Amino acid sequence: MIHSQLVRSDLNIQECTFNMHLERLINLLEIIAVVGRPVSATEVHVASGLPKPTCYRLVQTLQEQGLIEEPSNDGRYVIGERLIRIALLGKSDVDVRRVAAPLLKGAASSFNETVFLARFRDSKVEIIHVETPDDPARAFIHPGLGVRPMHACSCSKAIAAFAEESFQVTIMQDSLKAYTNHTKTTREDLLAEFDLIRRQGFADCDQEIDIGISSVAAPVTIGNIGAIFSVGAVGPVRRFGTDYRHNIGCQLTQLATKISGAIQLCNVAEV
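^ thats the sequence. predicted structure below, dont judge the formating
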C-alpha cells in the first residue's frame, strides 16, 4: 500500500516537472515568434524572467531539436524550419487560401488573366484556389480545381523541377501520357525542361494538356522546406504566346515570394 502511494507520488512529481519544462519551452517559442526578428538569448532571458542558466539551457534544447535556428551564427535566433514545417502540415487549404487569396486577386486584376494556386501533397499537385479577372469583357480560362499531371502542367512542373532527384525519377517511371501532340513524353525532354525551369525560375505549359490553352507558373518556396506550392496564370493561346508567358512568369516569381511570406507569417503567428 505504502509502496503504491510512493510510486503514484513519484509519477505525479515527474508529470509536474515535465509540464513545467514543456510550458517553459512553449513560452520561449512564443517570445521568439512574436518579436518578428532575430532575438538574442539575453533578450529571451529578460522577456521570460527565467534564471539565466535555465533559459540558456532551454534555448539550446530548442535549437538542437530544430525548433529555433541561428541563421547568421551571431547568437540571435528565429523560429526554425522544423516548427514551420509542423505548422504548415496542419494548415488546411482554407487556411492557405485565406492568406493567399488577396494576393491572387490583385494579380488577376493586374494581369487581367486567371491566376491560380496549387499545392503539393501525397506526391501529387492540385489546384486549390482560382481567381479570375474582374473585366466583364475579358475572355478567360478557368482551369478548375483538383489534381494536375506532374509532367504536363505548369503548376506541377514548377514544383517537380525543384524536387529531389529521386522524386523526379518516380514521375518518369510510368509512361508519360500524351494529352496532345505538345506533351513531353520522354525522360530526356522532361529533364531538359526541368533544367530550364530551374534556370529561369518558372515553368510554362504550351497546349500540353488542352489545345488552345497555355499557362505559366512559378514555385512558392517555403524556407528550406522547398517548393510545396506554385502560383500560375492561364489563358487562351492567342494571348499566351512565348513572350507573354515569359513576362508573366517573371512577375509570378515576385508574387510567389509574397505568397511564401504570407504563408510563413501566418504559420509563425499561429504556432
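Residues 55 and 182 are 60 Å apart (CA to CA).
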